[in-house]
Write a structure and sequence with these properties.
Two copies of one chain form a homodimer. By secondary structure, the first copy, chain A, is mostly helical. The first copy, chain A, has ten helices and no strands. Chain B binds a DNA duplex (18 and 18 nucleotides) through residues 17, 39, 41-44, 51-55, 57-58, 62-63.
DNA sequence: GTCTATAAATCGATAGAC
DNA sequence: GTCTATCGATTTATAGAC
């Protein structure tokens, strides 16, 4: 939505507005890490940019609107990272690992934004429905690999515990139109998405400190485990 | 550490101090949900209790010390929940599910405390080393089930992707003295712990909204999947 | 141990001059 | 569109009377 404003700036006025909007978002992202998302302060952003606190209200009319812009931008960037890492011509196991690594790398260089997306929700703030579209891009990248493996006939059968179709939301069953996922396949993609976010969160939040010995190596191991569970074959 | 103060109160003075310490902790826990952990305010706690803001410094000499007490108390409670749910005489699959459900129930009724433990870390705050002991109790409960299944000779062999022993911290390899876990078994317990926290976080933070259709049912399915991966046999 | 008073900051948001 | 000034509130923390 705000990125729309930054495309095709025609007049000098529009360009100036787009640039300042960008600077506000960048400053806000820098500040996410200093006091946490819930303490994000419009005033502090204004101070960092050398502008009056009231001037910023011309760009974002509330703190929540700025938060929404940051969240959608974050979901889009992590979706970009996942899609950019994916080479549809490669083998499923390689695609899977590449997507996982792309997401992790984005998270490592944008840890506060990752926390904004997947950490504790900001109290009193509710993300608008349109954020769901951007939020779905990363798990969809994972689903695409599974769908392609299934179409190629190389998807492994589900492991022992199977998923009751009644547990999956009707809308989610159609998450990848044309893929023809059954409940088990859908559930395995959901758990893969949850696993990816969960293991990155553990690494970023220090829960693996003195538990694992090699973060990148354990992450790759987790990716293999997750991919195998999803039905992909790893060498 | 603070709970020590509450055991064996001898004089009336000590009992009064213990009770007020308890009230401060309870009030702080109530406030965790209002503005998030990073906004936890000693003054607001004092106000809620009808005491002067300065008086509270007699009980906790800083906000970080109060946070530490809350974190250790939370880890201990979730460890209690896991241990209380475990019946060592039951079958491994039943024990596993019971522990999972016990942890989820604690999280559902203490969601802000759960977020304090496993959500975004509070900026500028570092948990003291002694918190690690309390933090380990919940995953240890999971490990105990796996260890007992191994001792009984009913632990399934590892699934295809195996874990390089170099990826596990040397201290973690001894996480359950006497269990004789190898790297694969240790890694599977770590991932089970991560899975449990991850799926509860997803449920609490709304990421499963309109994705799954039955939170409790999908949680049980996840528990079965996780237990099977850990090597337990589910009917 | 509890109180008042205070220090030196911060915040979101608005009004109104220019 | 940007500024100053302001409102009414918040915070952590300390000093000192009682």
């Amino acid at each position: 939505m705000y990125t729309d404003l930054m495309n095709a700036p025609r007049t000098a006025r529009q360009r100036a507005r787009a640039e300042l909007t960008r600077e506000i978002l960048d400053a806000a992202r820098r500040q996410l890490g200093e006091a946490g998302p819930s303490a994000l302060s419009l005033r502090a952003v204004a101070r960092e940019l050398g502008m009056a606190s009231s001037a910023i209200y011309r760009y974002f009319k509330s703190r929540d609107e700025l938060l929404t812009a940051l969240i959608i931008e974050g979901y889009d960037e992590i979706g970009d990272a996942a899609e950019a890492a994916d080479d549809p011509a490669a083998e499923p196991d390689e695609r899977w690992t590449a997507i996982w690594r792309g997401v992790r790398e984005w998270a490592l260089t944008n840890r506060h934004e990752f926390a904004l997306l997947f950490g504790t929700p900001v109290p009193g703030y509710a993300a608008p429905p349109q954020a769901a579209v951007a939020a779905g891009r990363m798990p969809l990248a994972l689903a695409r690999v599974v769908a392609d493996a299934k179409a190629a006939g190389v998807l492994a059968p589900p492991p022992a515990p199977t998923c009751d179709p009644a547990l999956i939301d009707a809308g989610t069953a159609e998450l990848l139109p044309g893929a023809g996922f059954d409940a088990d396949e859908t559930a395995r993609v959901i758990l893969a998405w949850n696993r990816l976010v969960g293991i990155v969160s553990y690494e970023l939040h220090g829960h693996l400190h003195r538990v694992t010995a090699d973060d990148a190596g354990f992450f790759d191991y987790t990716a293999r485990v997750s991919g195998a569970f999803a039905g992909l074959r790893f060498a």
